[in-house]
Amino acid sequence: MRRRFLWWMVLLAPAAMASPQSLDPALARQVDGDARLILQRTETPGASLAIYRDGVPVYVHAYGVGDRDGKAPATVSTHYEIGSITKQFTAAAILQLQEAGKLDINATLATYLPDAPHAKEVTLKQLLSHTSGMPEYLDGADVEQWAVKPATFDQIMARIKDRPLDFSPGSRWSYSNSGYAMLGRVIEVTSHESYEHYVKTHLLTAAGMTHTTTVADEARAPGMARGYRHANGKLEPAPTIHATVGWAAGNLISTVDDLERWNVALRGGKIISAADYALMATPAPGSTDYGLGLFVDTLDEQPRIGHTGGSFGFTTSNQYFPKQGIQIIALTNNGDNPEPGQMLVTAAFETLYPDLAAAARKPAPGENAATTAAARTAFARLQGKGEDLSMFGGKLKTKMSGDLSGRMARQLAPFGEPSSFIFKGQRQDKDKGKTWSDYRIEFGPGNSLPFGVELDDDGKVAGISIG
After folding, report:
1. 124, exposed or middle or buried, with CB in 10 Å at 0-12, 13-18, 19+?
2. In degrees rounded to 5, what are phi and psi of residue 350?
3. Which CATH number fits domain 369-466: 3.10.450, 3.90.220, 3.40.50, 3.90.930?
4. Which of 32, 203, 292, 426 is the least crowded, having the fewest Cβ atoms under 10 Å away?
């Protein structure tokens, strides 16, 4: 155990890049310490963490190794798959084409792809905002075997063509990679360029991004990290999604400095107009926290605009905090959930603004000890601790007796033991007449989870909400 611990300490010693500004040394040490702790706990081989203030780097560090087998140290120029951060680029391309008069995001998909599934029912804007109800092409027991092989657009569409919409377009929000695959094809049809050529010519070049390309070029990318994930408790190399499968939904690879060039160019009017950026960064109808290619939410009650990315062997996060003028980017070669990339960003922000973090952790008044005890017990069971289901009631108990119990354990067990369980208040479901008690569960630096329970008249947990 001692040799293994020392090995991690050596690999996680940071490599820094000089910057015109820098954090206070004590603050930088805390950011670094939290980052190393997160990477040790998650067994993440390598990462890049960068903080920019008003576009100027103040902290840019690399940790660990890009390739565990070769022990190649990660650097601040290491390339990582950025997964769904790609969606920002696809959304910006669509808006560019609208500005050029070549399409209308309020038009139906059928205007451009008449033969696509549900083309007459959904608009481009609904595809951009994940409010279309389009079924997911990256679902299914065979997805991993299928996704590592080449696929045409028609083959991607074949996976969803016989499936109904998940809900009435515009009525709800549900993340759909399928919508972005369709948008990639719309870009090709309206621009008369391949998706890859359009992105390179009109986005990457315009932003000055010389270190960004697609997963098809991983073998040629200098310092490309290798992706990993845990399987049966063991860290192992992960497969690579094929460029034609991830495509407009998530096939780019990049570096932290190139992503910041993108952030500055996108917000600064070099890619799209200020009005269209505002549209990207405004929640769309049917959604509370997603615009067009960008999540628009909060951290510690502070506005946050950005996107996370995940592939089989990578998790990443690119987040802007407009109130503070801070951009935090984290790229990792670990594809696990909870996501190390997002944990690094959260921990760094909360180190920079400890008063905001403390305020967000302040318990709300009116906590009921019995309800909290029931919530704690239920969460432990959801993590797979024990077989007793007596704390659940109604339909939830029946579901937990089926496959829900196993699925919840697979999702929640990796979070580990909660370090604190914080009551955040009650809310009323007026439609169903239910009262929910909400909590913030902490698991260590950068890792927390919103959790809610609804109790029936017998004090049993009849409903749960996560996230």
Report:
1. buried
2. -75, -25
3. 3.10.450
4. 426
Between strands 295-299 and 420-429, the pairing is unpaired
| Residue range 83-224+234-299, CATH number | 3.40.710.10
> pLDDT digits over 353-386, tens only?
999 999 999 999 999 999 999 999 999 999 999 9
| CA nearest neighbour of 378 among 388, 367, 365, 364 | 388
Check residue 123 and report its DSSP letter: B
DSSP 8-state symbol, 165: P
Choice among 73-87, 144-158, 390-404 with the minimum mean pLDDT:
390-404
Q: N- to C-terminal Cα distance for the chain?
A: 35
Mean pLDDT, rounded, of the chain: 93
Domain spans in the chain, listed from the N-terminal domain onward: 83-224+234-299, 369-466
DSSP letter at 107 equals: S
Strand partners, 330: 49, 317
With beta carbons less than 8 A apart as the criterion, state whether 130 and 84 touch. no
Burial category of 22 from C-beta neighbours within 10 Å (exposed 0-12, middle 13-18, buried 19 and up)? middle
For residues 391 and 308, give the distance between their C-alpha atoms in angstroms, rounded to a whole number.
35
d(CA 445, CA 37): 8
Do you find a cis peptide bond into 338, omega within 30 degrees of 0?
yes
Positive/negative CA dihedral, 136, 140, 142, 148? positive
Q: Which amino acid is at 35?
A: A
Integer Cα distance of 49 and 271 in angstroms: 25
Q: How many residues does the chain have?
A: 467
Helix axis angle for 177-191 and 86-99, nearest 10°, is 40
Task: Tell me the two tokens of residue 52.
Answer: 């920019």
Q: Counting beta carbons within 10 angstroms of the beta carbon of residue 397, is it exposed (0 to 12), middle (13 to 18) or buried (19 or more)?
A: middle
Give the relative orientation of helices 177-191 and 243-250 as an angle to the nearest 10 degrees: 90
Write down the pLDDT at residue 412: 95
DSSP character string of 415-429: G-S-SEEEEEEEEEE
Residue 58: in which H helix or E strand, if any?
strand 56-67
